[in-house]
Amino acid sequence: MKPYVTLNCAMSLDGFIGKQGLRVRFSNEEDKRRVHAIRAKSDGIMVGISTVLTDNPHLTVRHAKGKNPVRIVVDSNARTPLNAKVLDSSAPTIIAVSRRAPIVRRKRLQEAACVIATGEKKVDLKSLMASLSEMGLKCVLLEGGGTLNRSMLELGLVDEVYLTITPILLGDGIRWINGTLSRKINLAYAGSRRLGDQMVLHYKTK
Ligand SMILES: NC(=O)c1ccc[n+]([C@@H]2O[C@H](COP(=O)([O-])OP(=O)(O)OC[C@H]3O[C@@H](n4cnc5c(N)ncnc54)[C@H](OP(=O)(O)O)[C@@H]3O)[C@@H](O)[C@H]2O)c1
């Protein structure tokens, strides 16, 4: 068993979701409201550790009405800083680490979050999904970054995808799927929507 997973990301017109050393705002106000409405309906929001280290996101519901989902950080080496916003008291947080994560860091994180250890060097995402399902999480919003998106898609753990296309060009940076895919993944068109100057594309995985 696994939760239903919705991947959401916003990218530049040339396909990048971030750029090193540059803080880029992708979503306009309407898109923020759309994403926060999905957050409010989700049981969990999941991100990779690099997103926490780069953006320090709250991962809470602020631009829509509804409760805050459980925050999930995929962090093999327990690198989540103790002062990260995802560890504040506004919602419960799960830090998924690997079994090789330093014990001292794991123990410190346990004071602020629920720590799940799975996988040897990297977090075992299939096993993490099974644990989340056992904990009662039925739907999870995956909010990147590109490396975690790639692993989740490649393992067949993503059920639907929303891509917001923003009218900016970055030239280079981190792609919404960061790294290569070992297989072709077919998606089925499920709709599109214009939100001001942005386009939101919706696909289901087959
Ligand atoms: N525009 C958007 O919608 C959006 C959304 C989110 C993020 N971003 C941007 O994306 C960038 C970060 O993306 P990123 O690709 O560098 O990193 P990321 O996907 O946020 O995090 C990747 C890290 O997660 C950890 N991880 C642990 N187990 C994993 C597994 N099984 N599979 C994959 N990752 C695993 C790895 O680090 P460890 O081995 O240390 O655990 C890995 O390096 C930032 O620039 C951020 O601003 C943009």
Describe the structure concisely.
The protein is of the alpha/beta class.
What general form does the structure show? globular
The CATH class: Alpha Beta
Using DSSP, what is the number of strands?
A: 11
Helix content estimate: 10-25%
Task: Give a structural overview.
With 206 residues, the chain is α/β, with parallel strands linked by helices. Helices cover 23% and strands 30% of the residues. It contains 5 helices and 11 strands, in the order ββαβαββαβαβαββββ. It has a 9-stranded mixed sheet with strand order 6-5-4-3-7-1-8-11-10. Strands 2-9 form a two-stranded antiparallel ribbon. A hairpin with a 2-residue loop joins strand 10 and strand 11 (198-205). The longest helix has 13 residues, at 29-41. The mean pLDDT is 96. Bound molecules: NADP nicotinamide-adenine-dinucleotide phosphate. NADP nicotinamide-adenine-dinucleotide phosphate binds next to strand 1, strand 2, strand 3, helix 2 and helix 5.
